[in-house]
């Protein structure tokens, strides 16, 4: 850990972590109460708490998607890995985010509708991804998926907390254990009271602040007097390649896409993020909560916009560190950072205090706090939904009431907060840093990826295949990971198991192996699934106000206009999934890797300018589009205090937040 004196006092750390946490908690509790008052959204209803009544609009969905990739690990990791390996890293990191989200857009629309020769409603009332697994394969497979999903959430969440607490400690000198426990505290309060709707709202508020700081900070680094311009940043990066050539990079340069380590990391991170997204019930819940007409455009827009954050921010901060570390104002001057400091993610905090002093350090402290709490809220809702709906409501009490599910959701939020903080503390005390978790996480999150996709897209996957594939995949992945670590380094230790190649081979094995295993087992003992069984999933009847709606019949649901609309959305989702994979992976970084070139100053300048334009586009999508897409109307309604019609459903009164081009679906009341 760093021995550099923190630029901010401990009071600043406690003030942000505790003070802002309490302020946001109180603010979101108030907002939740106002939403209940004016829009009839009852946070004591499971449908509201877990899936926000499925009425979230395109703008808020896109902002939530961008927020989902504003991990503190992304901000810290993209910066320190660019500092290590060069500018190729930012492109690969961006690709590993955007492609996953656009693929998730396709799965999201399939989760709502099944589109083949005759469209049928597939799982429109699902609350969690695990609920779909239970209905299709039964309780045994459901238990296995609970383990896989909880493992995924625990590792992703603890990695975020670990990286954030280390950065907070570096910036303020705050005790790292105290930071680890206090960071999720305020989040637990507003998530406890507000549920998923509060998560969407806090995602938006946090993302609004974060994006402003990121846009300001990228410009601040470039115009800092020790750098001064894009051209000067280029010159400094060229000199760094001469002084500290990067092994595996073309001519040792930081300014080349021909970087072996960046390529390996890109492949590793892409396949790991497939697992992290698909096995994260939080992403599925956001898909379920989106209005039918908002899921695909929201996910696609958010996915494309999210590319800029690791690319632009990681590139400028990482290369900026190379330029600034020779300055007397650099915290470790005249020495370079130690490997422990780099691995702990301290590149960004050091750049912040160099270019903007205590103000910059405070801005980054606030950014890390915002990104951490935003992700923490989504992770808490996801994990609490598993505890309440999939453990208590399935295996403990098979006929739970709405209030019982809500109570266990609240218990789940508290349990998650305490457990993750304890796990992150254990990792820290055991000598594990954010870099190690970042690399190894896919070994455990990938095995359920293909079986989950096939559960929704292929009626031929059998129960035996669903059980066998992830178990075999994880066994192969972990075996390859540990075996390769021993083969490369002659030992199995934290250092060896954190190496690039052991994790690359292990993650690839755990990702790929389940696919052929599932297909082979399914074909050996074939049995086709009847998609109509998903209709057994019902909404939870509310004990507070509205009761469960009348069933929606195929005749009412499948009007010609709605069939055509859903087919079009499915095609668009598939198009963008393929387009981002081709554009962000196959047609951009891979050909440039094969080109064996270093950037000229003109090319580098154009590269940075385009990246800055892209991050400004992300700012517009994340900050202002949700306001245009109904947000201003809702805000004005709350401010002026006009009460919504209590007789209307949330879907009707909250249309401003769920604007959609989908053909209207109206279910006639009984007897009409």
From TrEMBL:
The coiled-coil regions, if any, are: none
A Gene Ontology molecular function term of the record: urea transmembrane transporter activity
What spans are recorded as compositionally biased (Low complexity)?
655-664
The record's CDD domains line, in alphabetical order, gives: SLC5sbd_DUR3 (cd11476)
> Which InterPro entries does the UniProt record give?
DUR, Na/Glc_symporter_sf, Na/solute_symporter
Q: Which UniProt keywords apply?
A: Membrane, Transmembrane, Transmembrane helix
What membrane topology is given?
Multi-pass membrane protein
Q: Which GO terms describe its cellular component?
A: plasma membrane
Give the residue ranges for region: Disordered: 644-672
Q: Which domain of life is it from?
A: Eukaryota
Transmembrane intervals: 12-31, 51-71, 91-109, 154-174, 181-198, 204-223, 262-279, 299-324, 345-369, 375-393, 405-424, 436-458, 465-489, 501-525, 572-591, 603-625
Entry similarity comment = Belongs to the sodium:solute symporter (SSF) (TC 2.A.21) family.
- What PANTHER family would the database entry show? ACTIVE TRANSPORTER, PUTATIVE (AFU_ORTHOLOGUE AFUA_1G17570)-RELATED, PTHR46154
Put simply, this protein is called SSS family solute:Na+ symporter
Q: Which organism is it from?
A: Massarina eburnea CBS 473.64
